[in-house]
Amino acid sequence: MKLPNILLTGTPGVGKTTLGKELASRSGLKYVNVGDLAREGQLYDGYDEEYGCPILDEDRVVDELENEMRQGGVIVDYHGCDFFPERWFHIVFVLRTDNSILYKRLETRGYNEKKLQDNIQCEIFQVLYEEARASYREEIVHQLPSNEPEQLEDNINQILKWIEQWVKDHNS
């Protein structure tokens, strides 16, 4: 494997997609938004009436991504992470956003009140950070602040440096 695989995870609205797309364009790595992948391939296992969204068929998503992940050089963006094989990722970034900022972002997306409150609670209790720590080796899981445009730029630069170092360490 010549290039690393990166997981971007965190509560909906923290900026995973913005970071992932920009990172892919600057690094040359392939960007995969699991939500888009599921939509395009109809990788669903029913519909959640309470949250007003389809239920992801995690096994089919894993099957769909397996070959790409084996080759390397993939940035995966999804709000959950416990169903991805541990062997897939060289590093995991959990994006974190202040609740007041996150609330406004989710409100603009038109989330219903229950979905909004549950996602804010998820962020308050660091649910996705804990899920990442439970699913991957602790030393590869990192939190990144994602409140302001300046932090986005800092995060991109930090990850690009990490990619550069990984490539040096694994291709010499």
TrEMBL record:
Documented EC number(s): 2.7.4.3
Q: Which domain of life is it from?
A: Eukaryota
Pfam families under this entry? AAA_18
First-level EC class: transferase
Q: List cellular component terms (GO).
A: Cajal body; cytoplasm
Q: Its GO biological process terms? A: ribosomal small subunit biogenesis; rRNA processing
Instruction: Describe its assembly.
Output: Monomer and homodimer. Interacts with small ribosomal subunit protein uS11. Not a structural component of 43S pre-ribosomes, but transiently interacts with them by binding to uS11. Interacts with COIL (via C-terminus).
**Known function:** Broad-specificity nucleoside monophosphate (NMP) kinase that catalyzes the reversible transfer of the terminal phosphate group between nucleoside triphosphates and monophosphates. Has also ATPase activity. Involved in the late cytoplasmic maturation steps of the 40S ribosomal particles, specifically 18S rRNA maturation. While NMP activity is not required for ribosome maturation, ATPase activity is. Associates transiently with small ribosomal subunit protein uS11. ATP hydrolysis breaks the interaction with uS11.
What is the designated name of this protein?
A: Adenylate kinase isoenzyme 6
